[in-house]
Amino acid sequence: MVKIDFNKGGKKTPTSIRSRKKFASLEERISHLEIANKRVSKRYERFVKGGSTKRSKNADEITPKSRTNKQLREAGLNIKRADESLKRRLLFSNVLVDEIRESAQENKTTAGKQVIRSIICGRIVKKYRLSKAMAGATKLARNSLMRSTSGPLKKMDCGWKERVFSVLLRLPFLSAKPAAPSS
User: Fold this and answer.
1) Neighbours of 94 (CB within 10 A)
2) Is the pTM of this model over 0.70?
3) Which residues, 6+ apart, have CB-to-CB distance to 161 below 8 Å?
4) Do 87 and 161 sit in the same domain of this protein?
5) Which domain holds residue 44?
6) Of 74, 115, 131, 153, which has the fewest CB atoms closer than 10 Å, so is most exposed?
7) Which segments of the chain does DSSP mark as H helices, in order?
8) Which residues make Cβ contacts (< 8 Å) with residue 44, sequence separation at least 6?
9) Cα-based angle 102, 103, 108 (whole degrees, multiple of 5)
10) How do residues 124-174 score in pLDDT, each as one tens digit?
11) How far apart are CA 79 and CA 71, in angstroms?
12) Sequence-separated contacts (24+) of 162-171 with Cβ below 8 Å
């Protein structure tokens, strides 16, 4: 009886080695493409869903804290290593700007807007020439900010002279007529 060995346990031909390597590389490429396909399909789902992603936020929707962190990063500072007082000052300024912008948008009357403009664009802002930056931050017109003066503060001072004179005239020693000089 003759035994025939059907297993090719002997030499491997170069074509079989090449075909196995090619098959392995194709399988690897398929797995990478499947992963990329999943990633793109998830991105598309998020886009269609319209969820809030960081890239889709407008400048108005950014919180003051995230705006502060962004400003620190743009300045080339490490957020965790930055001075705490610097971070607090930046955060404070961003919160104030947001409050001013919000109150300006909520005030529909002309008088209310004038009060806000007069507070925003006072002597100090004009002195340091920050009216353009203030207009950009608060979304108010720069021309109206430049024209505004400290109006409400002047209106509060109106009439103080009359009140002082009325009080002084009521005092007994001022209401009496001065004596005529004797010669």
Assistant:
1) 20
2) no
3) none
4) yes
5) 21-51
6) 74
7) 14-49, 64-74, 84-106, 110-120, 123-127, 131-138, 142-147, 151-157, 160-170, 172-175
8) none
9) 110
10) 777 878 778 878 877 777 776 666 555 444 555 556 667 776 766 766 654
11) 10
12) none
- What is the Cα Rg of the chain in Å? 39
CA distance 111 to 33: 63
In our burial notation (b when 16+ CB lie closer than 10 A, e otherwise), range 45-74 reads eeeeeeeeeeeeeeeeebebeebbbeebee
Residues in the chain: 183
Q: Quick one: tokens of 132?
A: 């353009």
Closest CA to 79 of 63, 89, 68: 68
96 lies in the same domain as 42: no
Residues 72 and 158 occupy one common structural domain = yes
Q: Say if 139 falls within a structural domain.
A: yes
**107 and 45, same structural domain?**
no
Total of domains in the chain = 2
CA 144, 150, 153, 159 torsion: positive or negative? negative
